[in-house]
Amino acid sequence: MKLSQDELNAFFDADDLRKQLTALTVNSDGDGSDFQIRASVLGILKSAVKKSRDLIEAKLNEDGGGLLCASRLSLVQDELIRVIYDFALYHVYRIKNPSAAERMAVSAVGGYGRGTLAPGSDIDLLFILPYKQTPWGEQVVEYILYMLWDLGFKVGHATRNIDECIRLAKADMTIRTAILEARFIWGDQPLFDELISRYGSEVVEGTSSEFIAAKLKERDERHQRQGASRYLVEPNIKEGKGGLRDLNTLFWIAKYHYRVARQSDLVKKGVLTRSEYARFKKSDDFLWAVRCHLHFLTGRPEERLSFDVQREIAIRLGYTQHPGMKDVERFMKHYFLVAKDVGDLTRIICAALEEEHVKDPRDRGFSGIMRRLRTGRGAANIQPVKGATGFVVENNRLNVTSDQIFENDPANILRVFQIADKHDYRLHPRLTRLIRHSLKLIDPALRNDPEANRLFLSVLTSRNSPETNLRKMNETGVLGRFVPEFGKVVAMMQFNMYHHYTVDEHLIRSIGVLAEIERGDSGDDHPLATDLILTLQNRKVLFVAMFLHDIAKGRPEDHSIGGARVARKLCPRFGLTDAETETVAWLIEKHLEMSTIAQSRDLSDPKTITDFAHIVQSLERLKLLLILTVADIRAVGPGVFNGWKGQLLRTLYYATEPQLTGGHTKLSHQRTIALAKEDLGGKLAHWPEKARSDYMNRHYPAYWLRTEPDRLLAHAELLHQNDQEGGRLSFQITPRAFEGVTELTIMAPDHPRLLSTIAGACYSTGANIVDAQIDTTTDGFALDTIFIGRELPDDEDERRRGERITTLIEEALRGDTTLPEPVSKKNAMKGRMKAFKVATDVLLNNALSEDYTVLEISGLDRPGLLYDLTRSIATLNLNIGSAHISTFGEKVVDVFYVTDLTGQKIANIGRQDIIRERLANAVDGQIELDPAAPVARKIQRQAS
C-alpha cells in the first residue's frame, strides 16, 4: 500500500523528527553518543511512536481496514528505522570519507518484509554488509538494535555479507524463506540489489519442488500442533489452520515457483481467477483486522482468539446481535467462513502447482484426459470408472472427462461423492474447482430430485467413510447448497466452553463417531453402544437423526424442537417413510434427554426410571437414543466423553430396559431387597451369625434397592472392620480406571454438614466431584460414596491421592484443621470464564421423586461452587440423599435430592422461596454465616 507523504506525515513526520534530533547535538555542542543526548533521543522517539500507534489504532476503528492498518504500522516502522539509522550515521558514528567497506543495507525480512506489521509483531531485520568489513558496521547495527529494544520492540536480526546470506539460504529453509520476502528499507541500495539478484540465480533457480515440499510439510506440522481442524472455537489467527500463516505459505510457494512480486500477479499467471484473487485479498484483510484489533486490545502479541476477547473484538468490528445469534457468534461465523475460504485457496494453488508438474502441456485439462484415453498414452494412470459415464480415476484421484458434465446432469455433483465413497477415491483438484464453479446448478429442482437424494443418502449412511465425504461436500459448498438448512449452520460457532467446534463440524464429526462405533473401531469407551448398533432394525434413521440433531442451532427457539420440525420437512425429501421420519424427529427432539437424566438424576430412584421409560416407550428407541447420545457427546470435543459418563448412560439403559420389556413386574421391591440381602449374606458367611443378622437391619430399604452387589459387599466389610476397631470414622478408596473416576467411601456420624465438609476437602486438594450417593444407617451413621474425577494414570498414585483427601476430611471432622472460606464469585472468575454470562437458576421440583425434593441449580461454574452450595444447604437444615454434578463448559448444573430433617419433602411455599434465594446467592458467592456453627463443632468433637 502506498501512502502519500502528507498521509504518512500525519502518522509519523520523519523530517520533523530529524530536525528535533539534530538540534539536540547542535544546541549541546556534543555528539550523539553522549548519554544525555541518547536519553533525549529515546524520549523524543518514544513519544513519536506512541502518538503514531494511537493514531493508527483510531484509524483502524474508523475505517476497519486490516491491511491498511498493517501497512501503516510497517511504513511508520520503516520511517523510524531510517531516522535512527541517519542519526547514527551523521551524529554518532560519522565518517567523513567512507570506504567501500563502510557501507550497509538495512532490509526487512519475514512478515515485515511483506510490508505488513501487527502492533505486537516482531521486527525482523537483515543488515547486509560488504565482504570486507570495519568496526563501523558493527557499531551502527548495535546502535540501531539497542535503540529499537529500548523503544520496546522485539527485534529479530541477522548481520551478514552477501556470500553468507547465499550459503545459509541454501542450507536452511527458514533463512531461505526470510530472504524470499526481503525488502529494502535504507542504506546502500546496490548491496541489497546484489543480494536479491544472486538469491534468484543461485538459490531459487531449479529448486521450487524442494521448497514447495518443505513449506507444505512445515504447514502440516504446524496444523498438527495447533489442532488439525480449522473450526476450533478458540482459533489461533496466525498459526492455526485457515489463518494468516496459511495465506503467507501460499504466497511464499507462489512467489518462489512463479517468480512473482505481488499477489495480483497470480491472476496474470492464470493461477487464480479474478474472483479467487478477490477472496484472497478479502480474507487477508479480514484476518489482519482481527489480528491488529487483538494486539491493540490485549497490549501484547496475542494470536489466540480466546473466549475472553472474542466479544470485544466483535464489538470493535461492528457486529450486532440478531435473533438466535449473539454479536460474538456472528463475528466468529464470519471468521470460520474466511478460514474455509483460505482452505479453498490452498487447494486451488496446489491444483495449479500439480498442473505445472505435467510434462506434456497437451495433457493438461479435460481435453488432455480424453486424448490420453484415446491414444492409450498414460492409460495405466487414467481409467474410466465402471458404471459412471464421464468419470475417470487418475492416480487414485477422481476426475471427469468434460467440464460440461454437471450442466448435462446436475445429479452428477452428488454422484461425485458417492463414487469417491464407494471406491475410496480422493478428488482431483481440478474436479474440486469445477464443483465450486458449478454450485449454481444446485437449485430446488435438484434438491427435490429423487436420484440426487438417493445419492446423498448413500453417502450419509455409508458403511465406509461418511465423515470424509461429507466434509468434502461441505468444503466444496455442496452440502450447504443441497441442504440449505445445513448451510445456515456452516461456520456457526456457539459461544460457550463446552463445544470445541463449529456446528457444521460437530455434525460431520458425530457421523464419523457413529461410523466408528458401527465398525467397532472406537475402543472400549462405550462397549454397550458398539454391541447395540449391530442389533438395530433400521440404522438409516440413526444416521439421518445424527446429521440433523443440531440443524436448528442459531434460531430463537429451542433447537431440539426446531430440529424435529426441520426433520419432518427434509426426511420425506431424502426418501424416508412416514414412520422413519417420525422416529428421526423424535430422536432429534429428545437427543439431550438421556444425557441430562443420566448426569443429573438419581438413577436409583424408581421414579426417574419410570419417567424416562414413559418418554422412550420402546426398546428400539432406547437403543437408538443411547447410541446417538454417546456419539453426540464424543463429537463435542476431545476428552468430553469419559468412562464415568459412559457408566451413567449404561446404568440408565440397563435400569430402563426391563420396564420397556415388562421385566419390572417380575420382582417387587420387597423381593428385590430380600434377594440382595440373601446374596450378601452368602458372601458374608465368614461373619458370626449375629453380626450378619444385625447388619441386614442396619440399612433402610432405599439403600438395598440402589446399591450394586460389589459395593454392598465393600460397604459391609468397611463397617464391620470399623465396628471391630471401635472407631467412628472409616474410609475406603477404590480407583476405577475404566470409568475415569476414583470412588471415596466415607463412614462418619451423620450430620447435615458432612457433605459440605467433604466438598470443602475436595476443593482444597483440587479434586473434582462428579457424583455423590448419600446413605444413612439406622444407627445414625452416614455412608457417603463420593466419585471424583481421575487425574493420575496409575491406580496406586490415584489411591495415594485419595488418601490425602480422606486425611483432610478426617482432620476437618475432628476439628484439627480449617477448611477454606467460601470463594466469592468475583475473586473466583479468572481468565476465559470472565467472558461468559450464565443466568443463575434454582429449580425446586417435588414431582421427580416419590421420596425427595429435587433441587436443580444451574449457573456459571467457578472454583469452590459445590462447597458453597453444600454449606448453604446445610444451613437450611436439609438432608442430602444424593448429589449429581454436571459441568458443560462454563455452565454447571448441580442436582441435589433433599428432604427436611424429618425425612419429608419440602412442601411449604415460603420455605421453598427461602431455599431458592439462599442457593441463588450461593452461586453468586454470597454465603450467609452458618448460625449453627457451635452445633457443628459439637458434632466434630463427637466424631473424634
UniProtKB/TrEMBL annotation:
Residues 1-384 are annotated as: Uridylyltransferase. Its EC number is 2.7.7.59, 3.1.4.-. Keywords: Hydrolase, Magnesium, Multifunctional enzyme, Nucleotidyltransferase, Repeat, Transferase. Residues 503-625 form the HD domain. Transmembrane segments: none annotated. It comes from the Bacteria. Uridylyltransferase (UTase) activity is inhibited by glutamine, while glutamine activates uridylyl-removing (UR) activity. This is Bifunctional uridylyltransferase/uridylyl-removing enzyme. It comes from Roseibium denhamense.
